[in-house]
Every structure is written in structure tokens, then in C-alpha cells.
Description:
Elements: H1 2-24, H2 36-62, H3 68-80, H4 83-92
Helix pairs in contact: 1-4, 2-3, 3-4
Amino acid sequence: MTRIFLGLYLAAFIAFTAFCVLEDGLLCAFPPFAAWHTYQIFVDLGTSIGLVSIWIYFDMVRQGLARGYFGVYLVGVALTGSISPLIYLLWRGRGSPPQSAIVTAPHGP
């Protein structure tokens, strides 16, 4: 159910992003520092994507993925913003669960 919601959200977000780019152009948000509140928004978004990127890096290491995948992820963030982490969350759910999600039954006395 979560993957379905995430997929639908990703599709809607990509469609909205495409609409904004087609309507206003690719660089419509620049210059982003027209007023103090835009500085705050930019720093907040940068902090958020930085924290998500740190989590994704350690998640990739925990899953045993090559560090090159993280480089691809960072390029994706630079080019697409939030779309890259959303795609990672969809991709992450495929295959076997990460080791942290495996629960073993306790042994009896």
C-alpha cells in the first residue's frame, strides 16, 4: 500500500514539476534570493535534502550497494531535486528487505 501511494505521489509530483517548467521555464526560481524569506526557504530545503542524503548514503552502505550508486543519486538530486529521493524510496523496496528490517524469533529457554 505504501509503495502504491509513493508511486502515485511521485507521478503527481513529476507532472506538477513538468507543468511548472513548461509554464515558467526551467530557471524560473532564479534568483532565489530576492528577499530574506527566500533565503530561509532555500536553507531549509538544503538542510532537508542534506539530511535525507545522509540517511540514503548509510542505507545504501547497510544494503551493501556500491558507493557509485550514491554518486548517481547526488547527480539526480542536483538535476531533479526531490524526485531523486522519491525514486530511491520506490527502488529501495524491491528485492529482499534490508538487514535492519529482518526480525528473528527469540530462542526458547
